[in-house]
Prior knowledge:
This protein is an alpha/beta fold. The chain is 41% helix and 18% strand. It is built from 11 helices and 11 strands.
Amino acid sequence: MANKIKTIGVLTSGGDAPGMNAAIRAVVRTAIARGLKVKGIKKGYQGLLNEEIADMEAKDVSDIIQRGGTILGTARCLEFKTPEGQSKGADICRKYGIDGIVVIGGDGSYRGAQALSRLGINTIGLPGTIDLDIACTEYTIGFDTAVNTAMQAIDKVKDTSSSHERCSIIEVMGRNAGYIALWCGIANGAEDVLLPEKFDFNEQSIINNIINSRKKGKTHHIIINAEGIGHSTSMARRIEAATGIETRATILGYMQRGGSPTAKDRYYASIMGAYAVDIMLQGKTNRVVGTRHGEVNDFDIESALNMEKGINDYEYEISRLLAI
Length: 324
């Protein structure tokens, strides 16, 4: 198999995440060091279908490791979810002499990679998502930067919330996963943390917490609300009506996806990117790169997609205990 790999492609798909550029850099430079040619595929699977494909050299990834976003661009592609689109993508790979593709993205991106693998294109997935919601890996590229960005923003909102003696509901990203919310809840010392995996939609308990905190002399009340629950603005109106305490909603939004990646994101993205190239040269395909106990390893995509990941009960319990 190693003798058959001469040219690899690399693409980023789905939502962008800080550290994707570090991963691209590692893929390109490792492949070149191993004697391979590299082609960059712009705008994800949509760019593959549109044949937005260009040769990449080591110099093309100079001075990108510190940049947020992805130099290759990204897009969502409904056509690639169809058998016809997938077959077209595999044919385009063969047209350009691409023997294998490294796909950097989340679970939706892996389904596309899985389809290409079934059609004879070697594929390796890298976990690029701020949501930390890929079950086979303890770490996903972009999470550390996103959670630090959110933490710093929440600290600032907390300052003004205390000055005005307000309650603040701060909504963080994560799709249907509550990892950013949980980490920020603990790191920011929030009074309440609302997670999709745990929240029972009992707003009365939140209202009681706010009233009790005010009686104890607290001048602010910070509620971290996960994107998967949402509706922060209407929740703020209901809480203000019930408590008489001025309540404001702040939705951090896409700022969490941007910015220069942290050292942790740069490091793991670099190691994972190099690892993806090397296991492809070993003859592996239809694999997802991940980490377990701090070590990089790989998993079958089918198995990875079928794994389930939940919030650690102990960590959630501690987030509540520390908020007392």
